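can u do me a favor
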């Protein structure tokens, strides 16, 4: 591990729960590099819910709030209103995001400038892994293939939209940095591999 990562991670919590290929570590490392490049470590806070991707900020050695499943958006708004000078980033899986995307109306109505990172793997990842380990892989109610197009959701709420992974050849570091620097609410969708073990 390089010195930059060592300085930003809670070393006592390593190794992470991320398995190779899931994409969470890629986004986590891009976030660290962007925060360092922008020099905003003391000016940023991350909020997460529960689920595999929600562990991304929990390894950060900086201001982090690990909340409840489906509540990251609400908690991020509260934190931004309480600390308006901080850049606030909510990290959600696509399942947790859909449990609270009604909060986008409040974000728009009150002009709450939060950044939202949605890790999109098309499943309730943590539940899938628990079903795999405890119930022999008998999946039940984890498929999110009916999920909406997040670019359309962002447009409907007047938010900026960015994406990484999937079909595009996008620079993850530069995209995360652009998201952080934008002075408006942003929804960043990160396509990750649903087939990889994540917990």
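np, heres the sequence
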């Amino acid at each position: 591990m390089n010195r930059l990562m060592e300085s930003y991670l809670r070393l006592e919590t390593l190794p992470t729960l991320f398995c190779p290929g899931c994409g969470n570590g890629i986004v986590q490392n891009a976030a660290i590099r962007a925060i360092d490049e922008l020099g905003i470590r003391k000016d940023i806070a991350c909020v997460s819910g529960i689920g595999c991707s929600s562990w991304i900020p929990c390894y950060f050695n900086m201001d982090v709030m690990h909340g409840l499943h489906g509540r990251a958006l609400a908690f991020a708004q509260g934190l931004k209103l309480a600390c308006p000078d901080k850049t606030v980033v909510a990290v959600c899986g696509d399942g947790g995001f859909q449990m609270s995307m009604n909060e986008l109306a409040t974000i728009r109505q009150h002009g709450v400038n939060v950044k939202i990172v949605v890790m999109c793997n098309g499943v309730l990842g943590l539940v899938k892994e628990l079903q795999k380990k405890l119930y022999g892989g008998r999946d039940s109610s984890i498929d999110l293939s009916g999920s909406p197009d997040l670019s359309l959701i962002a447009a409907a709420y007047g938010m900026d939209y960015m994406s990484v992974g999937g079909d595009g050849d996008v620079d993850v570091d530069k995209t995360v940095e652009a998201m952080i620097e934008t002075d408006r609410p942003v929804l960043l969708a990160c396509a990750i591999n649903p087939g990889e073990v994540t917990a």
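The first strand starts at residue 44 and ends at 48. hope that helps!!
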